[in-house]
């Protein structure tokens, strides 16, 4: 009986039927010897050679798949990072002069500086009309002119503050939309990573199991050789 690969005579006890070879190793041998059939025989040394080649290919394939997973994750994260990078630009567009004035007036009108300054103004107004100009006050009690000024100030200040609040509300709504997009992006990324990790664990377990099966074949062949050598010596 000759080996189909090397065409050399096979030693007794070392002939391997191609039909008994593991499917993955058999397909690997078929890549180098397409005319191999299940009825052909090869030597044990040749089978061990292709076993080592098969294990090497499994390890290289595993490394390649790990690198591909890392690359897919990095591309997914990089392509979606634009959502958080442009929030500042979109929520703060170019303001007109009126919008800037409205913001400044609303900010000043809601500060302690305005409250204290206006309180000092009112006290000075009252004291001047009661004590300093007691004989000829320009706004005698009950301070009708002061009430008119306060009414005009309130009538002007209210719509200005509302303008600023409306614009701030629109900005907050746009920011909320961006926050939702970022949360959705994070959720999708976590789901992608979870799927990749699950796939990686299942694939690694399958590869490890296949490697263990090849190692078991090695051990079985070694046991056969030991038994044959023992029987010959006896």
Alpha-carbon distance between the two ends: 25 Å
Low-confidence stretches: 82-87
| Strand order in the sheet with the most strands | 1-2
Number of helices: 7
Largest sheet, described in full?
Answer: 2 strands, antiparallel
Element string (H = helix, E = strand)? EHEHHHHHH
Mean pLDDT: 75
Task: Indicate how many domains the architecture comprises.
Answer: 2
The computed structural class is: mainly alpha
Say how many strands there are.
2
Radius of gyration: 44 Å
How much of the residues is beta strand, in percent? under 5%
Morphology: rod-shaped
Helix content: over 70%
InterPro entries: DUF1003
Transmembrane segments: 110-132, 144-163
Keywords: Membrane, Transmembrane, Transmembrane helix
Protein name: Putative membrane protein
Summarize the structure.
The chain contains seven helices and two strands. The protein has 234 residues and is mainly alpha-helical.
Top keywords for this entry?
DUF1003, two-stranded antiparallel sheet, Putative membrane protein, 2 domains, transmembrane helix, transmembrane, 2 strands, membrane, 234 residues
